[in-house]
Amino acid sequence: MAYSCRMACTSAHHLLLLAFLLFILQHSHMPCEARPTYLNNIIGTNDATNPTSSEVLLQEAKTVTNLRAFFQSIVDLLHFQNATQTAGHKNQLDFEKESELEAPEKIIDTSGAGFIYNAENQVEQEDANTDEAAAEEPHLLMPFQKPASTPGNCKTGNYIDDCWRCDANWQDRRQALASCAIGFGQYAYGGKDGKIYVVTSNNDDIRSPSPGTLRYGVTRSEPLWITFAKDMTIELKGELIVSSYKTIDGRGAEIHIVGTSQITIEGVSNVIVHGIHVHDILTSGPHHILTAPNLRTFRGSSDGDAIHIKGSSNVWVDHCFLAKATDGLVDGTKNSTNITVSNSYFENHNKVMLFGASPKDDYDRNMQITVAFNRFGPGLTQRLPRCRYGSCHVANNFYTSGWGLYAIGGSEDPTFLSQCNRFVAPDATNRKEVTSRIDDDGPTFGGWQKWDWVSTGDSFANGAFFTGSGVQNASASNYDRARSFVPRHASWVAAMTEDAGPLNCVPKSSC
Ligand SMILES: *[C@@H]1O[C@H](CO)[C@@H](O)[C@H](O)[C@H]1NC(C)=O
Ligand SMILES: *[C@@H]1O[C@H](CO)[C@@H](O)[C@H](O)[C@H]1NC(C)=O
Ligand SMILES: *[C@@H]1O[C@H](CO)[C@@H](O)[C@H](O)[C@H]1NC(C)=O
Ligand SMILES: *[C@@H]1O[C@H](CO)[C@@H](O)[C@H](O)[C@H]1NC(C)=O
After folding, report:
1. How far apart are CA 176 and CA 146, in angstroms?
2. Which domain holds residue 199?
3. CA 104, CA 235: separation in Å to the nearest integer?
4. Based on the domain organization, do 97 and 177 belong to the same domain?
5. Distance (Å) from CA 474 to ligand 4 centroid
6. Beta-bridge partners for 485
7. The CATH number of the domain where 266 resides is what?
8. Does residue 448 form part of some domain?
9. Which reaction equations make up its catalytic activity (predicted)?
10. How do beta strands 465-468 and 115-118 pair?
């Protein structure tokens, strides 16, 4: 038996042995790698030139991991020979890491700016929607079809919530939520016409997930509306790679995604993430992860974002709690577009939301992003959001607790339409400015004075001010690509964002 096995398996064994020897040769003089980014952020202060014993341990652990990943790729090749032919699935999207592209930031001096918006001169938004009756029919700029199956109408003024939240049978009509989005991500279909998939276990196996786990659900080929049987904390062992036409719907349970890895929405479309907590996220990898039935993909080290959107469109993040990650909380990069981030609660994080990762990515000019009805809590430093090249509609958000550096930032001539937000500045006297223009050595398109950034209907408190540039007429066609809905008057913002973050939904009752 042993002899015949040796005959049969001989080529595989030789291949493995050869690979092993090559690997050892290649890595016996591995140069010191840069300090892993998550250590910089989380541990903080150690001198990178004087490696601590934990770094040495980490280095060793990394070598073992790399070795394992290398073997795994050979085993995978033998097991899944036709995996790479899986129709339509991109598995070679290995872009550079955002963290590797970033140089220290140079803030552009805008002190001579011609347009300053503050509490004294704030512009009333003429067409801001203050009509109580209009709560019944969302006042949107893009065509919108209200689902016939949602009788609930809370009349809070929050267009999204009013569309479904007062439906006492929300749990029987979960999929109606998909028709309630607003803004550029409003057509995110999620798993709307798919089956309901119930997560019953918090286990996570990145290579062979079992039915009943979240990872099994997000890697299926068909549309799925994913729900949870009970409260759970899921510690991801590697990136949760979500495929197209999926909704992750945390309503009815308290769901925490924590630990070692991120939610990755990459090279796909039509994903909805609703009602979950994502926090304390680190980087993970390199390793192999199941990304589709019968397909394991090699993944290098992840960025460590909470929700990472790359090369994807039609994505809606709603009513999530997002805090503490290694990189961003919601980052949209590499030709992503049609994204809405709404009704979410953010706290305790440095780089909150980035749309457009690099001055090299000029195709991000196509990006259209809506950031609306969110509540920005304490401990946030910057990027609420930051945009490069694209068009960002920032409307009806409540900045309750200031910011460490700035709220709205950008480079490479992004267009900002800031409407009907409530900005409460931090106490620090030199941090009152909402805006920041950052010179990252990319193209400037004639200088920051030409970038179209306008504030209209915003409400400023504690000395907050917004520096405008470019065309200062929010109705002008320059802002058409950034206009995605008609917001409510800023005086409604506190009430409309009161329930930002996951809702406490009880079956047979309203959320
Ligand atoms: C390989 O592909 C064929 C047809 O494309 C399929 O029937 C078979 O199940 C696949 N094998 C594996 C291991 O995925
Ligand atoms: C960006 O995406 C659009 C469609 O989503 C596509 O037409 C275009 O070719 C993409 N550009 C790049 C540089 O990938
Ligand atoms: C984004 O949405 C617009 C408007 O619905 C649509 O015309 C466009 O094709 C979408 N782009 C992508 C890449 O899905
Ligand atoms: C602003 O732009 C709109 C649309 O082009 C135009 O009708 C209006 O007159 C402009 N307002 C001012 C003050 O220029």
Report:
1. 9
2. 169-342
3. 33
4. no
5. 8
6. 140
7. 2.160.20.10
8. no
9. Eliminative cleavage of (1->4)-alpha-D-galacturonan to give oligosaccharides with 4-deoxy-alpha-D-galact-4-enuronosyl groups at their non-reducing ends
10. antiparallel
- Helix or strand or coil: residue 464? coil
Boundary residue ending a domain (101, 117, 147) = 101
The angle, 0 to 180 degrees and rounded to 10, between the axes of the packed helices 53-79 and 2-27 is 140
| Residues 245 and 329 both lie in one domain | yes
Residues 489 and 459: their CA atoms lie apart, in Å, by 9
The whole model's pTM is what? 0.81
Last residue of a domain, one of 44, 74, 101: 101
Does any ligand 1 atom lie closer than 6 A to the CB of residue 294?
yes
More confident site: 16 or 301: 301
| 276 in Cβ contact with 202 (< 8 Å) | no
**CA 369 to ligand 4 centroid distance, Å:** 24
Give me ligand 2 centre to Cα 408, in Å: 26
Number of neighbours of residue 281 by Cβ within 10 angstroms: 31
d(CA 30, CA 428): 46
Is residue 372 pLDDT above 60, yes or no? yes
Smallest CA-to-CA distance from 249 within 500, 502, 497, 496 is with 502
Answer whether residue 186 is part of any domain: yes
| Total structural domains within the chain | 2
pLDDT value of position 105:
86
Three-state DSSP state, 175: helix
> Does residue 429 line the site of ligand 1, with CB under 6 A?
no
Residue 29 in tokens: 């003089």
Q: Examine residue 509 and state whether it is found in any structural domain, yes or no.
A: no
| In a domain? residue 74 | yes
As annotated, the active-site residues are 383
Higher-pLDDT residue of 42, 74: 74
pLDDT in tens, 112-136: 999 999 999 877 766 667 766 565 5
